[in-house]
């Protein structure tokens, strides 16, 4: 995987780390509003949110509310977040 990729939002393009799961808006927030270790969310909460997102994608894909291919991709990524 490359070191960075270009993501685009209403402000234009911005380089985002190639292995990150976020896009342009989150990258801009990281650069404009830096935060330290004290403000980081506990890893257990992040993992739990991964499980919730994975379950929601599964249900929405099965019900037809979410395209099956997109649902599978979201489930995969959310599972990786849940696993740490």
UniProtKB/TrEMBL annotation:
GO terms for molecular function: fumarate hydratase activity. Keywords: Lyase. Signal peptide: none annotated. The keyword Lyase applies. One of its GO terms (biological process) is malate metabolic process. InterPro entries: Fum_hydII, Fumarase/histidase_N, L-Aspartase-like. Its EC number is 4.2.1.2. This is Fumarate hydratase class II. It comes from uncultured Sphingomonadaceae bacterium. The lineage of its organism: Bacteria, Pseudomonadati, Pseudomonadota, Alphaproteobacteria, Sphingomonadales.
